[in-house]
Design a protein that fits this description.
Layout lengths: L1 E6 L2 E4 L4 E9 L6 E7 L6 E7 L4 E4 L7 E6 L4 E6 L8 E8 L14 E2 L3 E6 L1
């Protein structure tokens, strides 16, 4: 079974930066898609950034384009989300996720098989 552990969350002022990490461990099916999602209080979970290794395709939510960057270190089996120019509306619990298949809309939650427990990001004005 695959295990995901997020870290790097915290409190930051608007305009600041944070880098989230997601450590992957355990045995499981081959991974084709990796992504980051977030959920603010009273709001549905939404896709923030995702990457399809099979198709070399990267997708970002419009709200974070130009500010967030998804990347991975395959040797360390770690997924990253670099967040810059943070805004109060970025405040949310952030989750990493892995999918063993592949699909067109990789910002959709439907295709992901494994999820971390989340790390809190709070951006103050």
């Amino acid at each position: 079974q695959v295990q995901l552990v997020e870290s790097g969350g915290g409190s930051v002022q608007a305009g600041g930066s944070l880098r989230l990490s997601c450590a992957v461990s355990g045995n499981g099916h081959e991974i084709y898609v990796v992504g980051w999602f977030r959920q603010a209080p009273g709001q549905p979970r939404e896709g923030v950034a995702a990457m399809s290794t099979e198709r070399s395709h990267t997708a970002y939510a419009d709200s974070v384009k130009g500010r967030f960057t998804i990347s991975q270190d395959t040797a360390k089996q770690t997924l990253y989300l670099q967040m810059s120019s943070l805004k109060p509306e970025d405040t949310a619990m952030y989750y990493c996720a892995l999918g063993s298949g592949d699909w067109y809309d990789i910002l959709s939650m439907a295709g992901y098989d494994y999820w971390g427990q989340g790390t809190q990001v709070t951006v103050s004005s």
